[in-house]
Specification:
Blueprint (H helix, E strand, L loop, with lengths): L14 H20 L3 E2 L5 E3 H8 L4 H5 L2 E4 L5 E4 L4 H10 L9 E10 L11 E10 L4 H17 L6 E6 L3 H16 L7 H9 L10 H8 L10 H16 L5 E2 L11 E8 L8 E7 L3 H4 L7 E7 H8 L12 E5 L2 H16 L4 E3 L6 H11 L3 E5 L1 H6 L1 E6 L5 E5 H6 L1 H15 L1
Parallel strand pairs: 1-5, 7-8, 12-13, 12-14
Antiparallel strand pairs: 2-4, 3-4, 5-6, 6-11, 7-9, 9-10, 10-11, 14-15, 15-16
Helix pairs in contact: 1-5, 5-9
Bound molecules: adenosine-5'-triphosphate and magnesium ion.
Length: 429
């Protein structure tokens, strides 16, 4: 019988990698709190119709990538492929719009898409996303874009580029679509097979085909920016002015269409050159039609989602110092000493300190080697003598300095010990 392994397209995130995830989550949580966003947690599965209606049946996500199955009650269930549809469903279901004004929400968690796995592309992957619901103001577009830029910057990533486009209103897009189909029909035989199939079903998507020959054709296609109605054009102009006023650089890319049907007006992507062919780390845009489409009141909204795997691939290339170093590693040997070590560790945790206890019972040199590797600031040593006297040896691992103390005295003077730990911590970092 073979060993059971994680399913294709999924992966375990082991403790050495988790510190990167925690760093990202912490930075995101702080920043989103500063910007007035509140966290929303929605279920990982939803009724399939939510995504079919919300994302659009002609999209790749709904057409080819969904994890859909019947549950034991014969309901069609889908593991969420993205976060916006669920957030909007919750917004409508709990009448968050009735609170008036703008709702600023954020979420994080796993998403599921049946795709061909490769670096930065998995079947279970994770996103952090924001949704700003209830405003048509171009400042809302600029706000969410600025937050994504700030988050990347705070994580030490500053070589991103921002690609920007406007998809106008549904009416603008309809007019553009006709012009595009007419242009592409003239080049039909030169398009890649996927794009040929999309020509009637989802022609805008052809614009971001990865096929080199199709790309050449797309570059010369009519630009959607020439098909925007006056109001759409003004909105887009204003978004650009605001980004300039914030010092956020961007590049216009009329071929940027994004994979989901619900986008209107502003569409954008943050790209990281180091990611190779999976270069998009954050995708987003305005979706003024989605809330009404899902049965809610007419509500404008704008948001984005960051792919965490791709972000963390980049962070792992840099060095991240682990700030979660243990205070103590406790080694002990002998029946008395081992029992006292357990009590001492318990007492230290009650005092708010972190401590890992060696359970091996092996010879001291071995235990001390593990203490060195543990990353703790200090080691507590309890041997036969210490067990007899109810004392301990306190060894500072950065200097090797060692002192002998009574166990009771040690706990009674814990504030002094905490100060010493603080000093050792700043030396170590
Ligand atoms: P792509 O063109 O790379 O397939 P997308 O347009 O399908 O991306 P979105 O739906 O906009 O992606 O999701 C936002 C972000 O989530 C992406 O920019 C990417 O960073 C991440 N993402 C999307 N699909 C995956 C996946 N299968 N594995 C890992 N990350 C993903
Ligand atoms: Mg995709």
């Amino acid at each position: 019988m073979g060993l059971i392994q994680a399913s294709r397209g999924t992966r375990d995130i082991l403790p050495d990698e988790v510190i990167y995830w925690q760093r990202v989550e912490e930075k995101a949580r702080d920043l989103l709190h500063q910007a007035g966003y509140r966290e929303l947690r929605t279920p990982i599965f939803e009724q399939t119709t939510l995504f079919e209606r919300g994302i659009g049946e002609a999209t790749d996500v709904v057409g080819k990538e969904m994890y859909t199955f019947s549950d034991r009650g014969d309901r069609s269930i889908t593991l969420r492929p993205e976060g916006t549809a669920g957030a909007v469903r919750a917004y409508i279901e709990h009448k968050l719009h009735a609170q008036g004004g703008v709702q600023r929400l954020w979420y994080t968690g796993p998403m599921f898409r049946y795709e061909r796995p490769q670096a930065g592309r998995q079947r279970q992957f994770h996103q952090i996303g924001v949704e700003l619901l209830g405003s048509l103001d171009p400042r809302a577009d600029a706000e969410v874009i600025a937050i994504a830029a700030t988050l990347l910057n705070r994580l030490g990533i500053d070589n991103w580029t921002l690609s920007l486009n406007s998809l106008g209103t549904a009416a603008d897009r309809q007019r553009y679509r006709e012009a595009l189909v007419s242009y592409l029909s003239d080049h039909q035989q030169d398009l890649d097979p996927d794009s040929q199939a999309r020509l009637q079903r989802n022609p805008l998507r052809i614009l971001d085909s990865k096929d080199p020959q199709t790309q050449v054709i797309a570059q010369a296609a009519p630009s959607i920016l020439d098909y925007l109605a006056e109001e759409s054009r003004q909105h887009f102009e204003r978004v650009q002015q605001l980004l300039q006023s914030l010092g956020i650089p961007y590049q216009l890319n009329p071929c940027l269409v994004r994979g989901l049907d619900y986008y209107t007006h502003t569409a954008f992507e943050f790209l990281l050159p180091d990611l190779g062919s999976q270069a998009t780390v954050c995708g987003g845009g305005r979706y003024d039609g989605l809330v009404a489409e899902l049965g809610g009141p007419d509500t404008s909204a704008v948001g984005w989602a960051i792919g965490l795997e791709r972000l963390i691939l980049i962070l792992q290339r840099g060095k991240l110092t682990c700030t979660s170093a243990l205070d103590f590693y406790c080694v002990s040997r002998g029946v008395e000493a081992e029992a006292q070590a357990l009590q001492l560790c318990h007492a230290l945790r009650t005092c708010g300190l972190s401590v890992e206890m060696d359970l091996s019972g092996s010879a001291f040199p071995k235990q001390l080697k593990r203490a060195d590797r543990s990353g703790a600031l200090a080691c507590l040593i309890l041997g036969e003598t210490e067990g007899r006297d109810r004392s301990l040896q306190l060894k500072w691992l950065h200097s090797g300095e060692q002192q002998s103390l009574g166990q009771q005295e040690f706990i009674q003077n814990i504030d002094q010990v905490k100060a010493q730990l603080g000093a050792a911590r700043s030396l170590a970092s």
